[in-house]
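Good morning C.,

I know you're traveling, so I'll keep this short. The sequence:
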Amino acid sequence: MGERSEMNAVFLQVRLNSSRLPGKALMLLEKIPLVEWCMRRLKAADVQEFVLLTCERDAEQLRPSALRCGFTLFTGSEDDVLNRFASAALYFKPDLILRATGDNPFVSPFLANETIRLAVSARADYAVLKNIPVGSSVEAVAAEALLKAAVRAEDAYEHEHVTPYLYRHPEIFRVVSGEAPSGYRSPLSVTVDTEDDFRRVSAWAANRTPETFSLLELVKSNSAADGEE
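The tokens, ready to paste straight into the viewer:
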């Protein structure tokens, strides 16, 4: 029997009880729930498994979106998100996990694939791209390293935010950051934390779908508006 080929997975974490903007994952951008923007854009990433990670309380509200977008719904701990990821890693058994969050409707599949390439080429336990719009990319984490972090991490912050234990301990893990590809370097934020964020993102999404929206064009237009070109 041949060896199992490498398997990559998107783990998209979502919650509906955000303190600053409750229910934001289901708010509509161009009549499409924000979380579905995330999922539909991530479907273009070069992975074999697509998983929506949430807690039991939010599962039924998110299930229709997961089904529409071809994501498997997985539930785990509400507050210990690192444990939720570790449980999903044990269940799906990926080699490399792309961690994404459900408040980033303009997450870039191109940047996600660049992050995969960086992680694989550097044999990294943890890999990210730097100098890109906030909320446009993902973190790549080796599943084996994630499981080790879940066992060792003791800080509540590390359990809530999944990856801090890895990048706080470069003496244990191979941590790599790569420069943003040409054209994507920008201080712009495209994440949704507040009502103001949502209004700004809604304007950028006008008359577009998750498949037709271009982050590259957005970065270029904002750079021109700022007089950088």
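Safe travels,
E.
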